[in-house]
Amino acid sequence: MTANVITFRSRSASREVGKALGFDQETAAKLASLMSAWEWKAPSDTLENSFKAAGLDIKHRRIAHYLQKCGEVLNLPRNLGQHSGGMVICQGHLDSVVPIERASMLGRTVVQWDKDDCSDMGIIKVDLLGLGMLAVLKDTAYLVPQYYGEQLDYAQLPQDVAVYETIEQADTVGLFQIESRAQMSTLPRTKPKSFADLSMQVAIIRPGPVTGKFVNPYIARRLGREPITYLHSSFKPFLERTLGVPLFQEQVMKIGMVAANLTGGEAEELRKAMGGKRSESIIAGLKNRLHEGMTANGFSAAAQEEVMRVLSTVKEFMFPESHAHSFASIAYSSAYTRYHYTAAYTCALFNNQPMGFYSPATIANDAKRHRVKIIPIDVQRSDWFCTLEELSENDRARYAGPFAVRMGLKYVKGLRQKVGDAIAEARIMEGPFASEYDLSRRVTAIKKLELTLLAKAGAFNWTGEKHHRRTALWNAERAGQTVGPLFENIPDEHELQTTSPLRHMTTEERLVADFESTGITLGPHPMAYHRVEMNAAGALTATSLRGMPDGVYTCIAGAVIARQRPGTAEGFIFLSLEDETGISNAIISPHLYERHRVTVTRGKFLRIEGTLQNQDGVINVRASAVHILTFSNIDVQSRDFH
């Protein structure tokens, strides 16, 4: 494998400096969590301002010293890491050229050079990337024949109009590549209707097209609002299919070759610059050559300047066309299987978490909105992984498809897989469990803490006579006690009790227990319990925004499920809020962020007021005020992309 040189970033610097200065681990972790990890760095995004926003006294001698040392170690080399997929292919003794060391993963070795150094030395590197979605599709292809009685061949999937309609509507939570906030905001505008359209859609949301300002012209031309033009007539043959806008690496290389007569080798230098650390130096080295070639070909000064602007986008990553086609194929396969085999796809998606843009809780809520029944964890029915169960006749009228998804024991936080497998094996070999005590005796590897975790997750609710979680916790506490070999197989008088002196959990307590123990609740969304309160405050549901006109002042509220501050967005932050009806999106300006830094970055439930943007089916709220909602102690986890 090729190496990566890992440097100190804000959080790693603050964490390590905290340790060096003698802060306890909890304090060091809290200080590290205050650091801004956004890709975009505003002038005010300093360690000092982060500490001020958190209410720390930066004049305190120890805090001031801490700040100073954090600043000094930023960007210094921290350790030699491993490239995510860069495999070195060689003939002969590689260690005679470059030092090789053992990787932390058994059976792997790493050269001590990064990909750029390897390239300079003529060493061949091939990227072999592992995609979680490939595992999802593989698992789905196993489930579909087993449960639906149909064969699923991804190489032979038909181009289904109904599938493309769901993509056009940005109904893409849990799908490959087209589930991000940026993709969802363009899909209703570009309306991909074919595989070629989908390939371009995958390619357009990349740093290169975004910084090159290719996205808006492409969308305007797709919508027929802007004529298709070309920077030079000689570019038409290779830009016509992308409406005159370069979306792929090869098109940028071709611009250089046609405009300035670059050779294949010189165009390859352009390709190497794409997304690389040395991109600016490569472009600078070709600048004179490009201008000479364009002048010889009769390009005007203005045209040359625009060509140079286009070529400068290679410093940001763009997809090669083959890569875009490959990813579009996976994206379509995920959309097709979710549309036609929703329960199987959802089951496979649960079994391969963590991956993608959203947490399992958001995936579960989206599945429920698609009328998929999800059944809770139950020691009498659940395996380690999530499984499919056939719906009853009554349920088939209420839910989509013939199957429900049974949550697996893997979602009980802190439960070991060998214990989960042992529970399933004991149930298969000797039948259902009669009680928490019975399970404890038959699954000898289980620890008392794991019994408690299962009880807290509601996994014992159907064990013996149906009972609530506090009774299960009461029983688990007793069943987990060691009694010695003489009495270990003899029931005691406590097993005969079917109740406990503990009161039932309230709705709020069950929600808190759900998220603490599994990260998911299968009952109503937390916001549903506060809808009356939110209605009184003027907060609209996510689905009701669709009928609101553009430009009205509105209010939304929900659990924060994603935060983004991409480097291409000039400091704007994008939040996704989820309520019981769906997902709404808010745009936070840099000015508003500065006034409410902690609220925006740390709030789990937010109420946001602002102006509604409803254009071409894409809905956002441009925020003017943001407030933390304190009505719940639920530990909702957001996926924050920096």
From TrEMBL:
EC number from the UniProt entry: 2.7.7.7
A biological process term (GO) from this entry: DNA repair
Bacterial DNA polymerase III alpha subunit NTPase domain: residues covered: 3-130
Catalytic activity field: DNA(n) + a 2'-deoxyribonucleoside 5'-triphosphate = DNA(n+1) + diphosphate
Residue ranges annotated for the DNA polymerase III alpha subunit finger domain, each copy included: 133-298
Pfam families: DNA_pol3_alpha, DNA_pol3_finger, HHH_6, tRNA_anti-codon
Class in the EC hierarchy, top level: transferase
InterPro entries assigned: DNA_pol3_alpha_NTPase_dom, DNA_pol3_finger, DnaE2/DnaE/PolC, DNAPol_HHH, NA-bd_OB_tRNA
Subcellular location: Cytoplasm
Residues annotated as domain OB: 556-629
UniProt keywords, alphabetically: Cytoplasm, DNA damage, DNA repair, DNA replication, DNA-directed DNA polymerase, Nucleotidyltransferase, Transferase
Assigned protein family: Belongs to the DNA polymerase type-C family. DnaE2 subfamily.
The protein, known as: Error-prone DNA polymerase
